[in-house]
Design a protein that fits this description.
By secondary structure, this protein is α+β, with helices and mostly antiparallel strands. It contains nine helices and 13 strands. The chain folds into two domains: 10-176, no CATH class; 201-378, no CATH class. It is globular and about 70 Å long.
């Protein structure tokens, strides 16, 4: 365990309040919607980096349940990061990196969200104006989850007097976060107990050993592929698309490259695909593209042999993490997982993902139940 961090200095606390005041004051001169959106993202990033909860009420319409959930989700994220940082259980990023905001037209959206939403009720009756944009950050850097770099965002704003308030925010992956109706405030002791279990549980090993002809998995090669193509897709593979979820298609590509010789990309690895786990020019099998089907395939015996890990302690480059929401409805199966990520840097527990296509820290996986998988070899 790393040494316990020094407590926040008075100067750091002063800097937080000064920046928060400056951002809040910037909203007093009736800014345009584009400026409100930028301030909304900067307020999130401010609280994220200082580990201090920030009231998003100046930019969010907290009369909307969805926006109240977003505020609470952000508070829970900061709580998780603060407890991890104070306890030194894992790396927590404090530095902020520059990002750009590019507004796009509805015609530039690459999915069918606008057509699909015509039958949805998000609580705001669809009133107001919609803006679409992309956040672009520094390549290879992880950003707060709600900035979701490289994804296409949609934000709806509604005028309230001379102000604009955000009533809706969507990007690929948003449904896994603050769309739940079951979010609640939590005490530090309750969260800390779960964090200790999450990061201290032991491993569960496979009892099956490799054969002389088995191909070993090199997680560093899988992680190298993930870093190369997390933010920009490999054109040699079919893309499922963010609307349907490209996360498992991407992780399957990474795992496949873990059985290669380190070339990124390596087109010869198609020889290792089998009927159950296969991707071609028009798509892939369920085990290739679907989170739960991949888990069943990877833990089913052969030809892919894997080690199921009991927790996050000792995660290595190339290990796979699958997540689902902690907040389940009565009709939801607790074994139904919805997202896959790959460890690309074990010291900081930096993870690569698609949908959205970017890097994220393990410390940011708030409100999720997790399971862990380490590929070992292929017969």
């Amino acid at each position: 365990m790393e040494p316990k961090p020094e407590p926040e200095s008075p100067e750091e606390g002063d800097a937080f309040w000064e920046e928060l005041e400056a951002l809040t004051l910037s909203l007093e001169d009736a800014p345009e919607p584009e400026e409100v959106i930028r301030t909304y993202l900067e307020l999130q990033y401010l609280g994220y980096s200082y580990l201090e909860p920030v009231d998003l009420g100046p930019v969010l319409d907290l009369n909307q349940e969805l926006m109240r959930n977003l505020q609470l989700w952000q508070d829970l994220l900061i709580q998780r990061r603060r407890l991890l940082y104070d306890s030194s259980l894992c790396y927590v990023e404090r530095e902020r990196f520059d990002f750009d905001l590019t507004f796009i037209t509805p015609e530039e959206l690459t999915d069918g969200r606008l057509e699909q939403w015509t039958s949805y009720d998000f609580g705001d009756k669809g009133e107001g104006v919609e803006y679409h944009f992309v956040v672009t950050g520094q390549p290879g850097k992880a950003y707060p989850p709600l900035l979701a770099p490289n994804a296409q965002h949609t934000v709806r704003l509604r005028p309230q007097g001379e102000e604009w308030k955000i009533t809706f925010h969507y990007f690929p992956g948003a449904r896994r976060k603050f769309y739940s109706h079951f979010l609640r405030e939590r005490e530090d002791d309750e969260v800390m107990e779960e964090l200790l279990q999450e990061l201290e549980q032991g491993d569960r090993y496979t009892t099956q050993g490799p054969k002389d002809t088995s191909i070993p998995y090199r997680g560093i090669f899988a992680a190298r592929y993930a870093l190369e193509f997390a933010e920009t897709p490999n054109p040699d593979f079919y893309q499922v698309g963010d609307w349907n979820g490209n996360c498992m298609n991407f992780i399957s590509q990474c795992v496949l490259h873990g059985f290669g010789e380190g070339r990124v990309p390596d087109s010869t690895l198609s020889r290792l695909m089998i009927r159950e786990w296969f991707s071609g020019g028009g798509g892939g099998t369920l085990a290739w593209e679907n989170v739960d089907y991949f888990w069943d395939y990877a833990t089913g015996g052969e030809p892919l042999r894997c080690q199921v890990l009991g927790g996050a302690k000792g995660l290595r480059a190339g290990d796979v993490i699958q997540t689902r929401s902690d907040y389940l409805r009565e009709d939801e199966d607790p074994q139904d997982f919805s997202h896959s990520l790959m460890v690309v840097e074990p010291h900081t527990l930096t993870l690569a993902q698609n949908s959205p296509a970017n890097l994220i820290y393990f410390s940011d996986l708030v409100g999720t139940h997790k399971r862990y998988l380490r590929p070992l070899y292929m017969d």
